[in-house]
């Protein structure tokens, strides 16, 4: 099943004051659908993450590729990615605060049935969604692809 989709960037702010820019994709439908947070690898909100959001939309879900570093920062340099990721570990609340902001932003979209949301994440993003679940976020499912389980 491949559906016609809509996409847009959505700006939002985490409680820690970080300005974040998510990428939203949803099927072009009049009825709200289940939503999925897509948490990126340590590189930031890359084209890979955006493609996963588009694919979810094509299969009938609304998806938000979240921004974990702010201003939709992206890098191809491992040293830079490590620095940004490490910064999110310095305050133990940063990851959950920023991911929660993304979740709330997804749930606020008119295309989303806010009572049916899930989260997926890749590597660093896998840790992000597991941390979100561990904090009791209202998620129906969480999937970590090659994420940190610690």
Question: How is the secondary structure organized here?
Answer:
Layout: E1 5-13, E2 19-27, E3 33-39, H1 47-58, E4 62-65, H2 78-90, H3 94-107, E5 112-122, H4 124-134, E6 141-145
Parallel strand pairs: 3-4, 3-5, 5-6
Antiparallel strand pairs: 1-2, 2-4
Helix pairs in contact: 3-4
Short synopsis of the structure:
The chain has 150 residues and is α/β, with parallel strands linked by helices. The chain is built from 4 helices and 6 strands.
Report on the architecture of this protein.
The protein is of the alpha/beta class. The chain is 33% helix and 30% strand. It contains four helices and six strands. It has helices at 47-58, 78-90, 94-107, 124-134, and strands at residues 5-13, 19-27, 33-39, 62-65, 112-122, 141-145. The chain has a six-stranded mixed β-sheet with strand order 1-2-4-3-5-6. The longest helix has 14 residues, at 94-107.
Identify low-pLDDT runs: none
- Distance from N terminus to C terminus (CA atoms, Å) equals 36 Å
Lateral arrangement of strands in the main beta sheet:
1-2-4-3-5-6
**Residues in helix, %:** 25-40%
Helices and strands, in N-to-C order?
A: EEEHEHHEHE
Shape: globular
Count the DSSP helices: 4
Radius of gyration using CA atoms only: 14 Å
What is the total tally of β strands?
6
Strand-residue proportion: 25-35%
Helix/strand-derived category reads alpha/beta
Average residue pLDDT: 96
Largest sheet: 6 strands, mixed
């Amino acid at each position: 099943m491949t559906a016609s989709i809509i996409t847009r960037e959505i700006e939002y702010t985490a409680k820690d004051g970080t300005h974040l820019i998510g990428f939203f994709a949803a099927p072009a439908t009049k009825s709200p659908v289940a939503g999925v947070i897509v948490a990126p690898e340590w590189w930031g909100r890359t084209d890979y993450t955006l493609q996963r959001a588009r694919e979810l939309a094509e299969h009938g879900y609304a998806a938000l590729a979240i921004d974990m570093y702010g201003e939709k920062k992206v890098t191809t340099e491992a040293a830079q990615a490590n620095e940004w990721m490490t910064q999110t570990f310095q305050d133990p609340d940063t990851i959950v605060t920023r991911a929660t902001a993304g979740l709330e932003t997804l749930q606020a979209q008119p295309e989303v049935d806010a009572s049916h949301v899930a989260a997926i994440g890749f590597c660093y993003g896998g840790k992000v969604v597991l941390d979100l679940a561990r904090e009791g976020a209202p998620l129906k499912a969480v999937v970590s692809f090659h994420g940190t389980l610690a």
